[in-house]
Amino acid sequence: MKLALAVILGLVLPTIVSAQSVEVEGNVASQVDPAKSTVTAAPTSLLANGVATSVVTVTLRNSSSQTLPNIEVTLTSSRGATDTIGHYEGTTLTPGNSYTSDANGVVMFGVRSSTVGSATVTAVAESLVTLSNKPVITFTSLGGEELDPHPDLSSVTADPTEVSANNSALTVITVILRDKAGTVKPGYEVELISDRGATDYIGHFIGTSLVDGNS
Questions:
Q1: Bridge-based pairing state of the strands 45-47 and 136-140
Q2: Averaging pLDDT over each range in 14-28, 44-58, 138-152, 184-198, which range is the top one?
Q3: Where is pLDDT greater, at 207 or 19?
Q4: Are 172 and 159 in contact (CB under 8 A)?
């Protein structure tokens, strides 16, 4: 009877050990691949005014090009504290140069500076893996046309965009002038015209009062 029990144990034990071995091998964590992961910056040239921001996007991938969520990434500048680095939580730029990758393996940072020059940014994952891409961001000085209102960054909006043609209903046109850095520019004269000429009345507001004059 004792001999039979020993034989059964001898048959069962190797099966248990083999099953455990397979399970461990299947749970080995993927590693960040520094070459297949990417680091991009946009724009790569901007004003050194402490406001203009270059958005640095880090995407983590393993050797199979699969994205890697929930991994901490730290972004640094070759110029150290000369440049300010924050991270995005949703659309909000938040202080701190370290953050965890989202479900798509992405972490986004914002880089600003008040000092003219070029900065090389470096992303490190898990405090161990330095990513291969190292974008260079150039901060330029203020001056000349860069301070003037920029046509692409300034805005013109109408509210409402549809009104009755009864000579009394109004649509309010709001013009906001911004320079290349996105800074609002006061003190500039603005003229508003209609492609239908004198068919449409255009006035301007002084406070809450609408007065004649399209500039």
A1: parallel
A2: 44-58
A3: 207
A4: yes
| Amino acid at site 1 | M
Q: Which is higher by pLDDT, 104 or 14?
A: 104
Query: What gap in Å lies between CA 8 and CA 128, rounded to an integer?
Result: 48
Determine the Cα–Cα distance for residues 175 and 21; give it in Å rounded to an integer.
69
Q: 115 with 21: CB under 8 angstroms?
A: no
Region class of 192: left (phi > 0), else alpha (psi between -120 and 50), else beta: beta
Q: For residues 49 and 36, is the Cβ–Cβ distance under 8 A?
A: no
Name residues whose C-beta falls within 8 Å of residue 112's C-beta, 6 or more positions apart in sequence.
Answer: 50, 51, 52, 53, 54, 83, 84
What pLDDT score was predicted for residue 8?
A: 40
Dihedral sign of CA atoms 30, 31, 36, 37 in order: positive
- Listed in sequence order, the residues at least 6 apart from 212 whose beta carbon sits closer than 8 Å to its beta carbon are 203
CA distance 146 to 161: 32
CA 173, CA 176: separation in Å to the nearest integer? Answer: 10
The per-residue pLDDT for range 90-110, each reduced to its tens digit, is: 999 999 999 999 999 999 999
* pLDDT recorded at residue 147: 62
Of 8-12, 39-43, 88-92, 208-212, the range with the lowest mean pLDDT is: 8-12
